[in-house]
Write a structure and sequence with these properties.
Radius of gyration: 43 Å
Order of helices and strands: HHHHHEEHEHHE
Number of strands: 4
Number of helices: 8
Strand content: 5-15%
Low-confidence stretches: 257-275, 281-286
CATH class of the domain at 92-236 and 301-314: Alpha Beta
Mean pLDDT: 80
CATH superfamily of the domain at 92-236 and 301-314: Ribosomal protein S6/Translation elongation factor EF1B
């Protein structure tokens, strides 16, 4: 103890040196750990960058220019599509008075019923263009604009069906819009059109179905998209040659000298008119024009058609970045 008292400076210097060495050791260990961590992160980033450099679209000037060119072409194609749908995009949908909408609905229903009646097609007694709820009540004033737009599209659709001359309109269904239920319609950010679904069931010939589907594919005012189609033939059995109905051929005048009373005679194997050998029934059947027979049978069957489609209301054009 006396030595420590006598050598306080040496003891303090030695203690300070020891503490400093310990601190340096701790700092060195921590620095080594940080270095190892930094080196690991650097090696991982270098490996990842090396992998990126091997990709086809690594951000090099030529790839950047190619991407800009592709985006410019894509932008022009989107703009051309938006322009192509412009004729089917309503400029403005204005609400009208509930009574005015009712008057338009009654006029459209009368016109459509007359069109079906003129071609001899039957229509359900309750048919009212899908707006049956407004037979006895007025439409809400805030919904008349969108309902009037939908009414115009449905009227055109039904007139096209009547023009195809079906035998019967069996059913027409239109679900209520959100606005009719007191809700607001909000289009999704990526939406370009609002669909109005309708369902149609009718009966007619193959020709009527083909004509109606063709009218849907070539719209005049409304753009329609077929979602599902089911056609069922009412005739389950395959066609037979006996189903063909031909007009009876006119009777040929007897040839001169072919009349038995005039002294002529006919052999059993010859026809009275020509004196030529008559064909055997089997041979006549073989030479029959089967395509002519089928043309008298096919296409006259009545088919049941169920069609679900969307009437599209194109939303305003989107400004591209």
């Amino acid at each position: 103890m006396s030595w420590i008292k006598d050598n306080k400076f040496m003891v303090s210097l030695g203690g300070g040196t020891l503490v400093g060495a310990l601190l340096l050791l701790v700092v060195g260990i921590q620095g080594s750990k940080r270095y190892d961590q930094a080196k690991e992160a650097f090696d991982a980033a270098a490996t990842e960058a090396s992998g990126f450099e091997q990709l086809a679209l690594y951000p090099k000037p030529e790839n950047r220019d190619g991407k800009r060119k592709a985006l410019d072409q894509y932008r022009r194609s989107v703009e051309s599509i938006q322009s192509a749908f412009a004729p089917y995009r309503p400029q403005e949908i204005k609400n009208v008075s509930p009574q005015e909408f009712t008057d338009r609905l009654l006029a459209a229903n009368t016109e459509v019923r007359k069109a079906f009646g003129d071609v001899g097609a039957t229509v359900p007694e309750t048919f009212f263009l899908g707006f049956e709820k407004y037979k006895t009540t007025l439409a809400p004033e805030k919904t008349t604009g969108i309902l009037d737009y939908q009414l115009g599209a449905i009227k055109s659709l039904m007139l096209a069906l009547a023009k195809a001359k079906p035998s019967e309109l069996k059913n027409f269904s239109r679900p209520s819009l959100l606005e009719e239920e007191g809700q607001a319609f909000t289009a999704a950010a990526s939406a370009v059109a609002r669909p109005f679904p309708v369902e149609i069931s009718f009966r007619g010939t193959e020709k009527a179905v083909g004509q109606f589907i063709s009218s849907i594919a070539k719209p005049d005012e409304s753009f329609l998209v077929v979602r599902s189609l089911r056609i069922t033939n009412e005739k389950k059995d395959p066609p037979r040659a006996s189903d063909a109905k031909f007009e009876a051929p006119p009777e040929a005048a007897p040839a001169a000298g072919g009349d038995a009373l005039s002294g002529g005679f006919v052999l059993p194997s010859e026809t009275p008119a020509t004196g030529q050998a008559a064909a055997a029934p089997e041979a006549a059947a073989k030479t029959a024009d089967t395509s002519r027979i089928l043309s008298q049978v096919l296409g006259d069957e009545q088919v049941q058609v169920f069609l679900r489609l969307d009437i599209l209301q194109f939303l305003p054009s989107k400004k591209l970045p």
